[in-house]
């Protein structure tokens, strides 16, 4: 027969474990949601330059939104790609664009023999400026780690430079 004391000890252990789990989750959330506001400039659609602070996370994957505030006490404003012309932060320049994106498989394990399907879709993104000049070269890295390059020439639409892999059967 189980005594009331052992049941109470088990209940206490469960409560302590739950409490510790909640504390660990809270600290994890705080660690991953830290803000890193650094000086930057937002270029508006009217060509205004707004100097302030941008929550810069040294983006491995191109951002989907930009968090900006005029100063450390100001409220945060969220910008999506079509809300602004671009943003300069930490020697990086991002521009908002509507582009076609080739989402064809690129990992060997995802390739299909003699695949003729089209995987091109339209997306609104922040592109990272790679080279700016007579022609601009932009870079996009998605969550799945696929990399895209875009070329923009004066008077022409921005174009993705598609690198497509495929499998072919050899007879």
Q: What does this 3D model show about the protein?
A:
By secondary structure, this protein is α+β, with helices and mostly antiparallel strands. It has one helix at residues 4-32, and strands at residues 37-43, 49-55, 66-69, 77-79, 86-89, 92-102, 120-131, 136-141, 147-152, 159-161. It contains 1 helix and 10 strands. The chain has a 10-stranded antiparallel β-sheet, with no helix packed on it. A hairpin with a 6-residue loop joins strand 9 (147-152) and strand 10. The termini are far apart.
Topology, element by element:
Blueprint: H1 4-32, E1 37-43, E2 49-55, E3 66-69, E4 77-79, E5 86-89, E6 92-102, E7 120-131, E8 136-141, E9 147-152, E10 159-161
Antiparallel strand pairs: 1-2, 1-5, 2-3, 3-4, 5-6, 6-7, 7-8, 8-9, 9-10
Strand-residue proportion: 35-45%
Q: Order of strands across the biggest sheet? A: 4-3-2-1-5-6-7-8-9-10
Largest sheet: 10 strands, antiparallel
Element order: H for helix, E for strand? HEEEEEEEEEE
Mass-distribution shape:
flat
Structural class: alpha+beta
**Counted beta strands:** 10
| Helix coverage percent | 10-25%
Specify Rg, calculated over alpha carbons. Answer: 24 Å
Report low-confidence residues grouped into runs of 5 or more: none
How far do the termini sit from each other? 74 Å
Please tally the helical runs, counting DSSP H or I stretches of 4 or more residues.
1
Mean pLDDT: 83
């Amino acid at each position: 027969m189980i005594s009331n004391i052992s049941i109470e000890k088990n209940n206490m252990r469960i409560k302590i474990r739950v409490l510790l789990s909640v504390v660990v989750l809270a600290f994890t959330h705080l660690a991953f949601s830290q803000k890193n506001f650094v000086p930057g400039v937002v270029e508006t659609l009217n060509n205004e330059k707004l100097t302030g602070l941008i929550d810069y996370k040294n983006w491995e994957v191109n951002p989907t939104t930009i968090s900006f505030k005029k100063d450390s006490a100001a409220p945060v404003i969220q910008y999506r790609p079509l809300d602004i012309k671009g943003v300069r932060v930490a020697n990086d320049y991002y521009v908002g664009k509507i582009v076609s994106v080739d989402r064809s498989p690129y990992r060997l394990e995802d390739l299909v023999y003699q695949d003729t399907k089209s995987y091109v879709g339209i997306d609104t993104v922040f592109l990272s400026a790679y080279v700016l000049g007579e022609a601009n070269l932009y870079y996009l890295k998605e969550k799945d780690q696929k990399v895209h390059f875009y070329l923009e020439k004066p008077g022409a639409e921005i174009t993705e430079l598609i690198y497509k892999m495929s499998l072919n059967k050899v007879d």
